[in-house]
């Protein structure tokens, strides 16, 4: 019966649990049924609070609540590959239970490897965002961090020859269609707003939390090959306003601005333009994400952290 309860999902967990109580009571009496119920609280920590409520065990219920508060839970979107995958792995290494989503099935496979939840879905779909949050709460009962990772809108050059101003670059700008601008706004800005609407009440009730938005170094120093990144400036402004509004509830929102990463094809000239003389690894970006989500960054909110190997030249 213990195995059945662990492997079941949804309401069937509690139907199996109730049947287990009946079976133990019928075969060995009330004392045995109560002892079995208590053992299930220890055997199934994720469902322990609900089990304690069913049995009316006040002391066990308080213990279950304490155990749940000891768990750290992080949602990571766009986690199927690249930076999002690196963030998910590093969050799991840091002790977070991860709940992952990406348009492909890769986040589902990664979640299995990391012992978390995974689903296929898009940040552009409000229903997918709602299901992600609801499933996370059903499984873990809390959300401590939300990592919003989004891709690039528009075309990305196959090979990057220069990292600064290029007088010879003649890629599209005015030719970009309105639909692409609107989709990029939905992806870079409104997806974060929608997730914040869903998760903020949860964080207020539990006493705090952190949002980390994966932005781009191109937000603060726009580069012609990445025109849609200019929209991320709106995300940074929203993050500042959000930080102002919800810091009183111990909830923070910050932006992480990666530079070129290991999956980008950089020419020798482009590499030499980076003071670190190399691209970032996904692991390094993930570790910066962990910092912004952690208690070590508890006094940082509404800010944007560059992780670009020193490439951006502005002093801020």
Task: Summarize this structure briefly.
49% of the residues lie in helices and 13% in strands. The protein is of the alpha/beta class and 316 residues long.
Fill in the keyword field for this structure.
316 residues; alpha/beta; Rossmann fold; 2 domains; seven-stranded parallel beta sheet; 12 helices; 49% helix; elongated; disordered N terminus
Write the layout of secondary structure elements.
Elements: H1 2-7, H2 12-28, H3 30-43, H4 48-55, H5 58-70, E1 72-77, H6 82-93, E2 96-102, H7 106-114, E3 117-120, H8 126-140, E4 145-149, H9 178-206, E5 209-214, H10 232-246, E6 251-258, H11 268-272, H12 282-293, E7 304-307
Parallel strand pairs: 1-2, 1-4, 2-3, 4-5, 5-6, 6-7
Helix pairs in contact: 2-3, 3-4, 4-5, 6-12, 8-9, 9-10
Account of the protein in words:
49% of the residues lie in helices and 13% in strands. The termini are far apart. A seven-stranded parallel β-sheet has the order 3-2-1-4-5-6-7, sandwiched between helices. The chain is elongated. The protein has two domains: 2-68, no CATH class; 71-307, Rossmann fold. The model is unreliable at 1-14 (pLDDT under 50). It is α/β, with parallel strands linked by helices. Strand 1 (72-77), helix 6 and strand 2 form a beta-alpha-beta unit.
């Amino acid at each position: 019966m213990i195995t059945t309860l662990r492997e079941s999902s949804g309401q069937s967990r509690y139907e199996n649990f109730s049947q287990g109580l009946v079976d133990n009571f019928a075969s060995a009496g009330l004392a045995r049924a109560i002892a079995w119920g208590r053992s299930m609280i220890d055997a199934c920590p994720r469902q322990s609070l609900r089990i304690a409520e069913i049995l009316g065990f006040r002391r066990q219920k308080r213990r279950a609540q304490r155990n749940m508060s000891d768990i750290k839970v992080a949602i990571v979107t766009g986690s199927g590959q690249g930076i999002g995958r690196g963030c998910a792995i590093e969050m799991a290494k840091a002790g977070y239970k991860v709940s992952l989503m990406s348009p492909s099935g890769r986040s589902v496979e990664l979640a299995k490897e990391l012992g978390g939840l995974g689903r296929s879905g898009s940040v552009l779909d409000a229903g997918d965002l709602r299901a992600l949050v609801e499933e996370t709460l059903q499984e873990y009962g809390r959300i401590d961090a939300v990592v919003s990772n989004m891709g690039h809108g528009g075309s990305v050059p196959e090979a990057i020859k220069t990292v600064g101003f290029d007088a010879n670059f003649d890629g599209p700008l005015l030719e970009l269609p309105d639909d692409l601008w609107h989709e990029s706004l939905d992806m870079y800005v409104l997806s974060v707003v929608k997730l914040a609407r869903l998760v903020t009440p949860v964080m207020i009730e539990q006493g705090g939390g952190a949002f980390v938005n994966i932005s781009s170094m191109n937000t603060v120093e726009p580069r012609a090959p990445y025109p849609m990144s200019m929209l991320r400036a709106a995300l940074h402004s929203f993050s500042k306003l959000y930080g102002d509004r919800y810091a009183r509830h111990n909830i923070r929102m910050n932006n992480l601005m990666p530079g070129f990463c290991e999956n980008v094809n950089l020419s020798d000239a482009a590499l030499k333009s980076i003071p670190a003389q190399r691209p970032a690894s996904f692991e390094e970006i993930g570790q910066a994400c962990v910092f912004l989500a952690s208690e070590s960054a508890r006094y940082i909110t509404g800010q944007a952290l560059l992780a670009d190997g020193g490439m951006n030249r502005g002093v801020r």
